[in-house]
Design goal:
Helix content is 60%, strand content 0%. The longest helix has 18 residues. It is built from 2 helices and no strands.
Length: 58
């Protein structure tokens, strides 16, 4: 199995989504729209990075 580095835009999207999820999960900032989905944002960011590592060109 060959792994590849994710594209820069994919990495930035995952970083922003995960960061928003973390700051909402730990109540650093309260964002009412993101609040119920904070854990899903964190999990989704990790899943995006894993998929981008396994799939070339993502």
């Amino acid at each position: 199995m060959r792994l590849s580095a994710p594209k820069h835009i994919t990495w930035w999207i995952a970083l922003i989504a995960g960061g928003l999820g973390v700051i909402e999960q730990y109540r650093v900032v309260h964002l009412p729209v993101i609040g119920p989905y904070s854990m899903l944002l964190i999990i989704g960011a990790w899943a995006l990075l894993i998929l981008a590592t396994f799939l070339k060109g993502l």
